[in-house]
Amino acid sequence: MKLSVVILNYNVQYFLELCLKSVEKAIETIGAEIIVIDNNSSDQSCEMIAAKFPGVTLIKNPKNEGFAKANNKAFKEAKGDFVCILNPDTVVAENTFTKVLDFAESIKDLGIVGCRLIDGTGSFLPESKRNIPTVKVASQKLFGQSKNYYANQIQETDIAKASIFVGAFMFMKRSVYNALNGFDEDFFMYGEDIDLSFRALKQNFSNYYFGETSIIHFKGESTLKDKTYAKRFFGAMQIFYKKHFKSSTLFNLLVWFGINFAKFFSSSVKPPKKTIDNYIMYSNELHANFNSMFPFEVQLVNHLKTVKPNTEVIFDANTLSYSEIITKMSELSKIPDVTFKILPNNSNFILGSNDAVNQGEILTLQ
Asked: Which DSSP category does 126 fall into?
């Protein structure tokens, strides 16, 4: 078997369904398997998988074991020569895996491959490629200075050696994962991807950013204005530095400050609500009850030559490929206050996420 796609899920049933549908299309020409490990979700994720994706290997954890431990458990079941760690709130293009596989097989000392990520607004996510977070770089990041934290020296669509990738998409040989002993289970959430990427470099593997394919990562990187994320981020960085760098009194002080004062970060930051004046459905047909779900009539189109500001575009994956949807979102993201939703193929809901703070919006078709 060529590829194992491993997806860790926790209470994102609808995003997971969309993700799985995109992955199924992306592995049609590859000998591949999909493994979903569920961290004791309280929604209907597991029931949905059993009903709609019988070919998916489902592992049910009796409790939330965190990112590292759960992915390591799933990896033990993987049979592919390559493995891709993938978030459940992602959408891959039909050619994502074939492109990355072709590239990966051409590199002898391959470590980990990351790709171009966009969020639910179509905007490029800078965490797609990051530099090594030295004490100085991480300290700057803690104070909101991210210039040196992200690998801005690499262009979005480049193919180049890079250091650190985000856990939403990490592609590697199974032998590399084994050589690294998987994710470090001292991390519960956040930091595992930084640690794995860095350990690959320390073992003389070469990590590569592959900007010739793009995927959607709806939530993107959480904000330090969220107190839960702040605590986890500072705690993860503390583990990382104790493990890989000499003790720094300054950084330890910064971490202590971050953990103890995280309560002052707002956990209910709400971005400005975008005004929507127009709804466009990119599809060959309009669902019978579609207009009743929106305050304005939904315009049915089969092209998007012009889109006005303050428009919500709904992409129908029964009409468009996921590759086309990802490309259109990237192109239209430059227009002010344009938002997006996706109707997955053969599904009865649409979803989207306009920011990294809230849970996203899901509308069920009646």
From this structure: G
The residues near 298 (Cβ < 8 Å, ≥ 6 apart) are 279, 280, 281, 286, 290, 291, 314
β-bridge partners, 117: 215
CA distance linking residue 200 with residue 196, whole number of Å: 6
Cα gap 67→74, rounded to integer Å = 11
> pTM score > 0.90 for this model?
yes
The phi, psi pair for 186, rounded to 5°, reads: -70, -25
Which of 183, 213, 212 has its CA nearest to residue 198? 183
Three-state DSSP class for 176?
helix
What's the number of domains the chain is made of? 3
Domain limits for position 132: 3-217
pLDDT in tens, 132-162: 988 778 777 766 778 889 999 999 999 999 9
Strand order in the sheet with 349-352: 298-301, 278-282, 311-316, 339-343, 349-352, 361-364
Residue 272 lies in a domain: no
The residue among 68, 1, 65, 67 whose CA lies nearest residue 34 is 1
How far is the first Cα of the chain from the last one, in angstroms, to the nearest whole number? 40
* Phi, psi for 24 (deg, rounded to 5): -55, -45
Shared-domain flag, residues 148 and 237 = no
| 293 and 166 in a common domain | no
The tokens of 143 are what?
A: 């104070």
Position 77 in a domain: yes
Same domain, 48 and 187: yes
pLDDT < 50: residue spans in the chain: 222-224, 266-268
Helical (H) or strand (E) element with 100: helix 96-104
* Amino acid at the residue 48: M
In whole angstroms, what is the distance from residue 202 CA to residue 315 CA?
Answer: 43
Q: Which two tokens stand for residue 164?
A: 């650190």
pLDDT of amino acid 262: 54
Q: In whole angstroms, give the CA distance from residue 122 to residue 340.
A: 8
